[in-house]
Each structure stands twice: as structure tokens, then as C-alpha cells.
Predict the structure.
Amino acid sequence: MNSPLKVAVLGCGSVGSQVVRLLGEQADDLAARVGAPVELVGVAVRRLDSPREVEVPAGLLTTDAAALVARDDVDVVIEVIGGIEPARSLILSALEHGASVVTANKALLAEDGATLFEAAEKAGRDLYYEAAVAGAIPILRPLRESLAGDKVTRVLGIVNGTTNFILDKMDTSGAGFGDALEEAQALGYAEADPTADVEGFDAAAKAAILASLAFHSRVTANDVHREGITEVSAGDVRSAREMDSVVKLLAIAELRTDDNGEEAVSVRVHPAMIPRSHPLASVREAYNAVFVESEAAGQLMFYGPGAGGSPTASAVLGDLVTVARNHRQGTRGVGESAYADRAVLPMGETRTRYHVAIDVDDKAGVLAAVALAFAEHGVSIQTVRQEGRGDDAQLVVVSHEATDAALAATVDHLRDMDIVREVTSVMRVEGTEE
Amino acid sequence: MNSPLKVAVLGCGSVGSQVVRLLGEQADDLAARVGAPVELVGVAVRRLDSPREVEVPAGLLTTDAAALVARDDVDVVIEVIGGIEPARSLILSALEHGASVVTANKALLAEDGATLFEAAEKAGRDLYYEAAVAGAIPILRPLRESLAGDKVTRVLGIVNGTTNFILDKMDTSGAGFGDALEEAQALGYAEADPTADVEGFDAAAKAAILASLAFHSRVTANDVHREGITEVSAGDVRSAREMDSVVKLLAIAELRTDDNGEEAVSVRVHPAMIPRSHPLASVREAYNAVFVESEAAGQLMFYGPGAGGSPTASAVLGDLVTVARNHRQGTRGVGESAYADRAVLPMGETRTRYHVAIDVDDKAGVLAAVALAFAEHGVSIQTVRQEGRGDDAQLVVVSHEATDAALAATVDHLRDMDIVREVTSVMRVEGTEE
């Protein structure tokens, strides 16, 4: 048998503990697949006496992560601490000391992936991170390798389980955001402080990672236009139902043409209405799914559990096997691919579609006045539905594609009109053809 | 720039012509992703003057495939001829002459993959074949690499578009098999001789490939229990509807325990009822999808177009980029993994569930007699539904899991009973928990 491949794990929380468990339980299979035994040589934790889900062999626990990653005999470092620091410094140190790295750290990759990729390149080591997006669902490897001979044009993802659970609950029960959030918290799908999920920060980090891979460019979390779901009302969800649609928080990365005819990347996270017939519409509860469109392959979808210790650990160990095999053979897998170096299109210039519901005075000429407001901003209307309701009426307008800036200006304009009592719902529409 | 990587293509039909087209159109991107220009040096065809979908540069066409694969300067051979011979000899010759190989040839891999894998191993070259199963859907790479740290327990696939189109049509329109087949033929979804599709041969080859990868064992097409859809009646489909289920032709590969407590592979292709709530139930028309269950990741699904020149070419070129990169670096990707060497469980010993619809005399004691017949063969009944219809009655029985042999014997027994007028529908039930 070949000499063992030595692995250090940073962090022993919900993911780390499952990684440690599987390293033990799957040892024989991992050895066969790597071509050498995989030996756990250290687990870095914050406190030695914390309760944890797995029993770590005595002597392997340490609070000195910096010393662990600097060991000369460590071949692969698995980073599942999360957050920017000390994760970044530890990964950089691991690479400098000759280890390859597997990480699940979406926040770090989306904020400062370039630093990590350059360090891996310089060290001649692998940096793999399948677990950073959509948990157990193999999506990064398919984008990076399976679709390497194709041209990806769009990625639409439900990549945050918490918000999908909340929106699904609102759709099925008619609940408002607040009640659905409370239920999600009670069931453990949302954290006590749900900001990172419900404000879209988590999805935005994943959108940046997906956009970078899909379009061979560097896209960071700061490039992502981000809107959360806290403003989504029961009325919005009802409006969607009336259009045979459903509201989802989507991470969107698209190839678009800018004003100069150059291909640019539009990358954004926001709630949107999608038709119930769209494959993403049937993604229920806390599941994740990523829908990919490419020129030759057409439409693909990848579906599965987007979070959880055990599913995320599956993705980590898949990367570990690849990285370990490469490490043994002295080779590297695919590194960063940013050659296309495409610009990010500002949100205002991105062409989208709006669904707008408006309470208006029920009198003659209202529809004409509203249509004129759209026209003044160069926004073409696809459909309009008018419903009288006693004194007032409701207009529901769905636009054709226009720049987001023109659509936003149209909505501002509507809000200023005397005949408009209230703009009750504004939401983008995705997943339909023009 | 690095010196070009030289590629030969065998076959210029619907897939080959799209490969040639994309090699031209995506040349810049392919060069950037491989790290060297990709140069097409020859296209082997049966006849030089056949009409084809793509213009092949003058001088590249040849009818001498054997000479093309034996050229010393060819780095990668793409085989999209299909069939056993001459494809096998050409692939073996290519490997012997130092080329790596990308193929879409499911029939050959399922019949004699071992010979090819061993030749690739001996030559130190890659043999990649993502396009052989489910067209553009990345499924082999996820099974081979992304899930390499996990234990796959079951693969359920809709891997034949023709049969899915026919069954979907029968479900939505109530048509019988013959009419649905005619429509599929008229629309180009089925061939004039539909045997390979409707009798399950195509799906069985793919099931063998999926089972080999999922369970790290050698499984051939001969190991696959195969039943096609020609016997599926409008009544079966109606019966499924009444159970809120749908009939699909499934390729199934499962890890099961044999009588000695050893893990063995059950691999089979047959029509089955699955609940409409199952993710595979919503796979419509000629689309494909593969549902994977594993211990740590849980349930994953991969969905997309399962055939067609351009989608299949996308999968071929994804492999080409990986193989080309490895070839340049003098390394290899993951070779065959058959270390687990699991036995294939005979169909008779495989535990399945049956849905049986029986026309019986409408008199007292019938249900008891039928229940006794199930009990005599050790088959436990999960549900039974009885419907009187004038003189006779219909019983619909769904069993718990039992060996397929016991279930088949039960159905034979029922057919021999005096009170049984006809066994009108027998179908396996999948995608539900016991």
C-alpha cells in the first residue's frame, strides 16, 4: 500500500464533525479511490472542551490551527471554519506550506477568491470548493469541467434553503413574511439572526462564485446586485399565484450585451416571479436547485439538499478524493479560469421585466394614463389586467424587457401620479421567454 | 502559445458534425481552457460524398479511420461512430498509438468496457465517456468524482428520451402504446425501427454504465434485467393515474443485501409506477433525468436533454477539454474504479413491489382468496382496493417489498385461479418508501 495521505481539518462544527465521521466510516473506500490511506492528523477547534457531534480521536484535537496548517507533513487541509479571518490566513499558510486545500467558505471565496487562487497557483497546489455553493449538489465541477466545451449563457439558482423554505411556506399557506420566518426559525431552517439569509448576502456570495465559473471572469460579492425577501408580502405571493407563478429568491448570472456590443456579466440576487411550469418552481422547502442554460447543451438542472452537515461533508469529501489523488501524483486539477475577464453590467443597464400591481381610481382614462407613464420611460407593456373593485380598481402590468433603470423610474413615476392610490406590488419576472 | 493539441474525430453524423462545428466556433475558448490551441486534424467518415450538417475543411475528410487513429501526431481521438465494431478496434488502436480517447459509445462500453479500460490503463491514457449516458446531462463525472467521498446507494434514471416521450404521451392523452409510438416516429423522437429504445436495450446499456460507476464494480449490459414498454397498456397508465402515479421506464441500479448478507448490485430496466410527487415524475417529453441517493448527500437529481447532436456534442467537448489538459500535462484523470467488485443480484432475488389489477367474479370470499394467494408466496399486501362493476369486480393490490420471484409466482398463481377472470395490469412500483 502507498504511504498515507495526511489530512488536517479546520473546524469541527456541523460540517467538520461530519467530515471527521465520514473520514472514519468510509476509510476503506476512500483509500481505494485515492490510491492510498487517508489519515486524519489533526482537527483544529476553538475550544477543546466544546460538545461535538463526533468523537475525535484523542491527541488529534488542537486549538492551534496556525501550527496545524504549517506542519510539513500535512498533504491536504480542509477548511470548514467559515468567515473571512482567520480562515484566509490559514488557507494561505497551508498553501505556502505545500498542502492542497478543500474549503466550503463561500463568503471568503466571494470576497477575496483572487488572493486564494493566486496563492494556489503560485504554490502549484489545488484549491477546491464544491461545498461552497448548494451543499451536496455537484454544480461547480459540472460548470468548471463538464461544460468546459460549451458556452454557458445563464445560471438561475435557488441557492439559499432558508429563504426558499420561507417563500414556499408563504406560497402554500398564504402566510406573511414574518410568520413564515418565525416558523422557519422554530424548525431550525432559519437562524436567530436571519440577516445573512433573508437579506440575500448568502445567496449573493454564491452568485458571485457561480458567475465567476460560468463566465470565466472574476466576480466578487460586491459586484452582485442584492435584494432580500423581507419586503415580499403575502400580496406579492398572491399576485404571483394569479399569474400561475411563484415567488423565488433567485441568484442570477447572465451573459448580456452592453451598450458597446460587448458581452458583460449581469449578476444579481432578488426575489422574482417564475412560472409554475419552470423546473425551479417545483423546488420545495429548503431544497436548492441550479438551472443552467448553455448554447450547445440547452437547459440543465441540478437539484438536491443545499445545506446540512452531512450533505455538505459529502461535497467536501468528493473534493478531497480529487485533490488527494492529484497531490499524490504531483499534478493539479483545473485552477482559476478568468481569461474571459468580462465586465460586470451595472444593474441599471441590465434588461429585466417587471410585474407591477397598482391600485388606481376606477374612472375612465386611467389605463391610458398608466400606459403613457410606461411609454414615457421607453418601457413596453406585454400584458395588462384590469379589475374593478368598487370605488377603485387594480391594474396588473407585466412589461417587456427594459433596462432596470427605466423600469425603476417608471415605478417612481407611477407612485407620483394622482390617479394612483398605491403601487401594491413590484417584482421582477424571470424564467419566461420574451 | 503552446503547440496545438491535435484532435481526430471518427464519425460525422448528428453528433460528429456538431462536434466539428463547435471545435470551430469555440476555438478561442477551447484554447484558453485547454492551455493550447485545439486543432482538428482529421474526420473519418464512411463516404466522402455524403451530405452532412457541417462543412468540414477540405483535406480533413478521410474514409481511412484506421490510418487516422494510427497517426503518431494525434493527441485525442473522439469516437462518435457508435456500435461495437469497428469502434472498438479503432479505440484500442488509438490508445496503443498514444492518443487519449473521448467516446459517446454506450453500447460498446456496456458490452466490453473492461477491454477498453484496461487498454487505457496500459497505455497511460484517458478514456472519457460522459456523452454515453443522458446526453448533455453531467452525470458520470458527478458520480465518478463529486460523489467519490460518499456511498451511493441507488440510481434511478429516465435515460431514454424516446420511451419517455411515448409514456408521457400515453399519460397526457390516454393513447395506447401503438398510437403514441406512431406520433413519436412522426415527430422524429423514435426511429423507424424503434426496437433499441422501446425494448429497453438503450436504457440497459446506460444502466450498466451507471451501476459500474456508482458501485465501483464491473457491470455489463448482460447483467441488466431488461423489460421494455411495448406491453404497457392504456389501462396500466390509467391504473397509475388512479394511484396518483405515472408510468416511467426506469434504469435502476441499487445496492442490496443478498442472502449471505453481502452487498450486491441490483441493476434493471423496466416500466414502473412512481408517485406524481417524485421528482422524476415531472420529467416530460423526451427529457432525461437521473436521481441519485447516497448516504451523506441524500437525494440529488440531474435533469436535461438526453439526446440530440448539439447537447451530446457539449458533453463530448467537456470531456475533450479535461482529456486534452491531462494529455498536455502528461497526467491522467480518474480511470476505471472497480475495486469493490460487487456481485450482481439475480432479478428473482431482487426485492421489489408490485401493483396488480385483477378482474374477478363479484362474489363473497374473492378478496380472501386473492389475499391467500399472495400469502402463500410470502408476499405481504400493503393496500387493496375493490371496485364492483356489475357482474364482476376489480381488485387492485399493491404489495410490500418481496423477492421478484415470489411476486412473479403470485401473479402466475392468480392467473390460474377460477375466480380470476383476468390479470389486467402488473407493474412494479418504485420511488416510494416502504
In short: The first strand of chain A starts at residue 5 and ends at 10. Chain A has a mean pLDDT of 95. Chain A has three domains: 5-135+309-329, 140-305, 347-429.
